[in-house]
TrEMBL record:
UniProt xrefs under Pfam families: Phage_int_SAM_3 (PF14659), Phage_integrase (PF00589)
Protein's UniProt keywords contain Aminoacyl-tRNA synthetase: no
GO biological process per UniProt: DNA integration; DNA recombination
Descriptive protein name: Tyr recombinase domain-containing protein
Recorded superkingdom: Bacteria
InterPro entries referenced in this protein's UniProt entry, alphabetically: DNA_brk_join_enz, Integrase-like_cat_sf, Integrase_catalytic, Integrase_recombinase_N, Integrase_SAM-like_N, Phage_Integrase
Annotated segments matching region Disordered: 1-53
Segments forming domain Tyr recombinase: 178-391
């Protein structure tokens, strides 16, 4: 009895065609939907091996299912940027999403109507010159171009375009500009004196005393503040979101930290807590208990733009006063910057910066200063451990100046 030949096994729907060898590569044809005219939208992907081609086909199908793939060929740059940003926004922090949307707005204004497949390096170069004409900061222009390059790189992966035309375009080196000068202790003291009448004076005071960022200050909750131990925990941040604010965890693991503060800060926070209790008593049921240390006048989370508005108003008052009057507060005697470290602790400039980098919660070169008692406490603790911080800072400064590979055999 003759055995019949087995029928060829059919591939399941949606798997695409079998890998076909074409020259040195393998290709797979896959259906990703229908075109506007009703016909099937078939795409072909290639790979160096059959497995790679099949993997690209699966990625193409997933992208189509997630709305990351256009179902027609005349896709414009603006349409692709909208699709790409929406897909990124679903798993991105609100601040990152807002930044991407701002970048995409610049890109769409100049390149939005152009077909994606017809985009060339020359168009991207012209776009870069247009950004420069807007007098945008060089760093921001680089961010916008990086966003365009990332979006086009995804389009390459999705087989929408053959290559990334933004990659060859590089911005010219920015001219050396004037460095922003960090505030010294006296400047901080003058600003705090001017800001004292404002409701958010405690926010500014705590910010300068601890170096907390604006989003960390606005996200700080009373449950994370221990006035007796004079410590606070950075556990969440408040950032602007579409039409409101978003409270969530810090961006990085290192951003979660415990920060100490002195008795002066504790006194300011105690007074501020009493003021909030009075505001809550006056408003009664209209008060919203958010649990935040720095809420709005109704208890709701405070939008960062309100802090900016008050800060600019205080700075305007400060500048109109001429900044000539000596501060009436002893804040200056409690704050140290690099110059103070050099003068009071007989340290060189590089060693001073190295010492600041060794101290917790302080970034050298920033506008934030280290409190005198914090530095002294840190030095005393190191002395109890048998460590000489000055020598360690000097060694760190020398190591930073030594080129890699140097210091070998003489």
């Amino acid at each position: 009895m003759s055995r019949s030949k087995p029928e060829p096994r059919k591939r399941a729907n949606g798997l695409g065609s079998k890998p076909v060898k074409r020259g040195d590569s393998w290709s797979v044809q896959v259906t990703v939907g229908r075109r506007p005219d009703g016909k099937l939208d078939r795409r072909r992907v290639t790979g160096h091996t059959p497995e790679e081609a099949m993997q690209k086909a699966r990625e193409l199908q997933v992208a189509a299912a997630q709305g990351m793939l256009a179902t027609h060929e005349r896709l414009t740059v603006g349409e692709w940027m909208k699709t790409w940003v929406e897909a990124k926004a679903t798993r991105a922090a609100p601040t990152y999403r807002l930044k991407l949307e701002a970048h995409a707005k610049h890109i769409t204004q100049h390149l939005g109507s152009m077909e994606l497949r017809k985009l060339r390096p020359g168009h991207v170069h012209t776009f870069a010159r247009a950004l420069e004409a807007k007098e945008l900061a060089p760093s921001y222009r680089r961010e916008v171009l990086s966003t365009l390059e990332a979006a086009l790189e995804r389009a390459v992966v999705m087989e929408l375009i053959p290559r990334n035309v933004a990659r060859p375009v590089k911005l010219e080196a920015a001219p050396v500009t004037r460095k922003v000068k960090a505030w010294d202790a006296a400047t901080v003291a003058r600003f705090l004196e001017v800001a004292r009448p404002y409701r958010l004076y405690p926010l500014f005071y705590l910010g300068f005393a601890t170096g907390l960022r604006r989003e960390e200050l606005l996200g700080l909750a009373w449950q994370h503040v221990d006035l007796e131990a004079r410590t606070l925990r950075v556990e969440q941040t408040l950032t602007p979101d579409k039409g409101g604010v978003h409270i969530g965890p810090p961006k990085t693991r290192n951003s979660r930290r415990v920060v100490g503060f002195g008795p002066d800060v504790a006194a300011v926070l105690e007074g501020w807590k009493a003021e909030l209790a009075e505001e809550r008593r006056i408003l009664g049921r209209e008060w919203h208990d958010s649990g935040l240390v720095f809420p709005s006048s109704t208890g709701h989370p405070l939008h960062p733009r309100n802090v900016n508005r008050i800060s600019h108003r205080a700075e305007k008052t400060w500048h109109s006063a001429g900044m000539s009057r000596s501060p009436q507060t002893n804040t200056a005697s409690r704050l140290l910057d690099v110059a103070a470290l050099r003068n009071e602790f007989a340290l060189g400039r590089e060693t001073s910066y190295a010492l600041l980098r060794m101290l917790p919660h302080v970034k050298a070169g920033s506008r934030y200063l280290i409190r005198r008692e914090d530095l002294e406490r840190y030095l005393e603790q190191a002395a109890r451990e048998g460590r000489d911080i000055r020598k360690e800072a000097l060694a760190a400064a020398r190591a930073a100046k030594t080129p890699a590979g140097a210091g070998g055999a003489k």
